[in-house]
Amino acid sequence: xxxxxxxxxxxxxxxxxxxxxxxxxxxxxxxxxxxxxxxxxxxxxxxxxxxxxxxxxxxxxxxxxxxxxxxxxxxxxxxxxxxxxxxxxxxxxxxxxxxxxxxxxxxxxxxxxxxxxxxxxxxxxxxxxxxxxxxxxxxxxxxxxxxxxxxxxxxxxxxxxxxxxxxxxxxxxxxxxxxxxxxxxxxxxxxxxxxxxxxxxxxxxxxxxxxxxxxxxxxxxxxxxxxxxxxxxxxxxxxxxxxxxxxxxxxxxxxxxxxxxxxxxxxxxxxxxxxxxxxxxxxxxxxxxxxxxxxxxxxxxxxxxxxxxxxxx
Length: 313
Fold this sequence. Notes:
The chain is of the alpha/beta class and 313 residues long. 44% of the residues lie in helices and 10% in strands.
């Protein structure tokens, strides 16, 4: 995949945020999931950082490193022909330069969008100061444009998700952050943790750009979100947790009654599962986006070619 193809996919992904219809983004944690959602007709897919972390044996919250995350994003990108946007948490480092490295890794993996949170990790707590996060968003935009690809930046603020400050101040706080990130170069503003339709509608009106809502129990249904003016709805780790719930039910059935009903009916067959990934070219699974990797200074063994490291105990 060269820069021209990446830019074309980035243009497609950006066009899906034009609010003529809501973009419903399923979040996946592996290549097979990406193929299933693509075959179901979704025009783009997103990754779930939590789902990928759990798959590799890490807790959520930037406990996985950038390289392992980018490796998994690359496998998903090579399985899907639709645009992929990657959840890269808070950018894997405190400095704008760290964010720039992460953006370059995303592009080398073949993704054309990314989430960038304002939560702090690595022993810190709370959110980055607005001015600091603005510089991090600017660094993300500059890194993408210097490579010739206008990556779709989904800037996330966690004011509602983490209950930052007094409840009466969260709306205005969220709007200040979202509009600052938009001015710094974000394409979409991600507001997880808000489910009230009135608040969502007010956010749509107050924020100067498309907004992304995280779906979950109590979230208005997709048709209502579209009427409210929401540009994008994603599902985060929900599908992964649903899959884990089924897996636990299988474990309980095997240990308890000893039957196989929980995975013996209404299950994708082995042949279907194999066919799902048959279109992935074997060679493409072994090589990263080499042209772009060379252009932006990443060695190919770091993105998509290396085996994942050993997860912590």
